[in-house]
């Protein structure tokens, strides 16, 4: 009986891990296309998003879907044409990490500015995001590129 319970727990953890991985894959796809509906469907109602910039130790914190959606829409507006590429996703149970490259402009343009980043996710058992904590390398350079407003075609 103990062996049956252990096997059941392993299978349950594997299912939760796969659900977490699937959610993060869908998020990466949604961000690459700036599909706000797809992104927000993956967040729990009481989720927290810690932005890469802001005054707090974890950057600006947004709590709840409405606040998070507003932050993402503002980000899309500020960044202009952009996408994400080269994502690596690691998931275990209800925790996941993703690394990615932010591309300002078109991904097929080798001269487009690129910035590496990472996200830590905490998810519920249904695979909805409870926490998205983001990091970005080159924040000062990104600010300078955005302030100049000039990007390669």
What is the topology?
Blueprint (H helix, E strand, L loop, with lengths): L1 H32 L2 H5 L2 E8 L10 E3 L1 H15 L2 E11 L2 E10 L9 E10 L5 E8 L2 H10 L5
Parallel strand pairs: 1-6
Antiparallel strand pairs: 1-2, 3-4, 4-5, 5-6
- Rg of Cα set: 17 Å
Low-confidence stretches: 6-11
Main sheet attributes: strand count, strand direction, barrel closure:
6 strands, mixed
Q: How many beta-strand runs? A: 6
Oligomer: single chain
Helix residue percentage: 40-55%
| N-C termini distance | 64 Å
Order the strands across the largest sheet as they lie in space. Answer: 2-1-6-5-4-3
Structural class call reads: alpha+beta
Task: Give the strand content.
Answer: 25-35%
Total of DSSP H or I helical runs spanning 4+ residues: 4
Mean pLDDT over all positions = 88
Shape summary: globular
Order of helices and strands: HHEEHEEEEH
What does this entry look like structurally?
The protein has 153 residues and is an alpha+beta fold. The protein contains four helices and six strands, in the order H-H-E-E-H-E-E-E-E-H. The protein has a six-stranded mixed β-sheet, with helices on one face. Residues 6-11 have low confidence and may be disordered.
Summarize the structure.
The protein has 4 helices and 6 strands; from the N terminus they run H-H-E-E-H-E-E-E-E-H.
């Amino acid at each position: 009986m103990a062996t049956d319970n252990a096997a059941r727990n392993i299978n349950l953890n594997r299912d939760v891990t796969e659900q977490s991985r699937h959610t993060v894959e869908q998020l990466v796809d949604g961000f690459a296309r700036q599909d706000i509906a797809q992104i927000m469907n993956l967040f729990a109602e009481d989720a927290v998003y810690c932005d890469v910039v802001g005054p707090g130790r974890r950057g600006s914190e947004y709590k709840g879907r409405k606040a998070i959606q507003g932050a993402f829409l503002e980000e899309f507006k500020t960044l202009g044409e952009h996408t994400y590429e080269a994502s690596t996703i690691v998931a275990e149970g209800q925790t996941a990490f993703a690394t990615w490259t932010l591309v300002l402009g078109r991904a097929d343009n080798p001269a487009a500015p690129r910035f590496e980043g990472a996200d830590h996710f905490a998810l519920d058992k249904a695979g909805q995001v409870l926490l998205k904590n983001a990091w970005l390398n080159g924040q000062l350079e990104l600010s300078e590129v955005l302030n100049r407003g000039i990007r390669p075609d």
